[in-house]
Amino acid sequence: MKKVNIIGSGFASLAAASYLADAGLEVHVYEKNAQAGGRARQLKEDGFTFDMGPSWYWMPDVFERFFNDFNRTVSDFYDLVRLAPGYRVYFKDGTSIEIPDNLEDIERIFEEIEPGSGRQLKRFMADAEENYAIAIKDLVYKPGLSPLELVTPKTVGKVNQFFSSIRAQVHKRFKNEKLRKILEFPVLFLGAKPEDTPAFYNFMNQADFSLGTWYPMGGMYKVVEAMVDLAESLGVKIHTNASVEKIAVTGNQATGLIVDGELHAADYILSGADYHHTEQLLDQPMRMYSEKYWDKKTFAPSALLYYLGFNKKFEGLKHHMLFFDEDFDAHAKLIYDQPAWPENPLFYASFPSITDPDLNEGDRECATLLIPLAPDLPDDEETRTKYLWIMLKRLEKFTGQDLKSHLVYSKSYAISDFKKDYNSYKGNAYGMANTLLQTAFLRPGLKSKKVKHLYFTGQLTVPGPGVPPSLISGKLAAELLIKENHLQNKSAYETAV
Q1: Gap between the Cα atoms of 201 and 469, Å rounded
Q2: How far apart are CA 24 and CA 489, in angstroms?
Q3: Which residue, 56, 305, 360, 362, could crosslink 413 as a Cys pair with Cβ 3.0–4.6 Å?
Q4: Is the CB of residue 62 less than 8 Å from the CB of residue 211?
Q5: Tens digits of per-residue pLDDT, 114-143?
Q6: What is the DSSP string of 14-48?
């Protein structure tokens, strides 16, 4: 039986592990931290439970497709609920807009704010729905080996949308600044500014308004647990507290991993760890990309996160809240153009215990606050604390709640933590941005061109950042490894049938 060693246990690695094991390979996953899940780890302290990483569950069809590939369904593993409203957005004038759980009501809200915009939204969303179908069926499940992957009868008709931006498209159709910000918000999950993101990516609005915002009861870590359960049921061995120190190479072929000083031989190596870090595990001549290459790339933001526990329940708060009450473009400039801590940051607040009271012991509330930041900024404790009070003050102002006097637990997580825990390049939070010149075949490749039997998966390679793309990336990397090496490509389920 051929053996594959996988570095890291994030969503992409766990997905790849299941596909490889299902194809008949012996699979071992090595995770440096004590818990599987990569950036999606779970924190439990003082009777509070927190998702440390992703908190948005979008594109439920991608999760369902993943489990269906193994003749399983999402409902076999966790209970999924659709949030209504999906989220609430706050603005500088003190107003807020809730995003309902159906497109018809969203169109009505748009029309009330800007007459005529309801009809515009209907047309905009028809295009977004079409683009989503093209992306899912024709693009994102391609391995990024050739520009010809992008050329289909459907994409040819959309070519102009790759040379226009989301911002240009939105501003052409809508005049109200609040509506513009709501429509530009979903592309932030792609890690780039709206003006740098191709208009074709309006399919993220389909993910938002039509497919909706969901929540797995118990938190996003339930998805990790489900993927671990699936992988282990297929025979995958997951090793935690196992720090990979080097990729062993004989001649020009990967032959194993050095883990805590010990060689673990394998026929193939697949890394779901940070791509830049993975290449540091190779001797210099074996690396595909130079430091200059990485330095020129546009990375998704890093973040300051605070995990907070309160000793009471609150009224009027929502599961997801976005605070766009400061200058959106000014904050973005300090992330991408002139890296610095923003004096007046945008931020995000999540109160999942509003949906899921079992996250707390007793009649209490847990929350996560997040400020997107430029990677590689200094993030000492004094700076972190300063921004915690900025966020809490604005939360209290807009929601009319006394939060600070009920705060009983607080833990911060920021740039230096991403570097330490995930070997993240410059401390980025979720990979490389999906700009025009960092799309598909223009992203770092799924396989090494210098080291045979070495493959990559995750948010820095194809198709891009985010949880659903990571699931897809795991599938693409596994399929490429299997196909190129003429390995068994029939699932255990198909064989049994």
Answers
A1: 13
A2: 8
A3: 305
A4: no
A5: 999 999 999 999 999 999 999 998 899 999
A6: HHHHHHHHHTT-EEEEE-SSSSSSGGG-EEEETTE
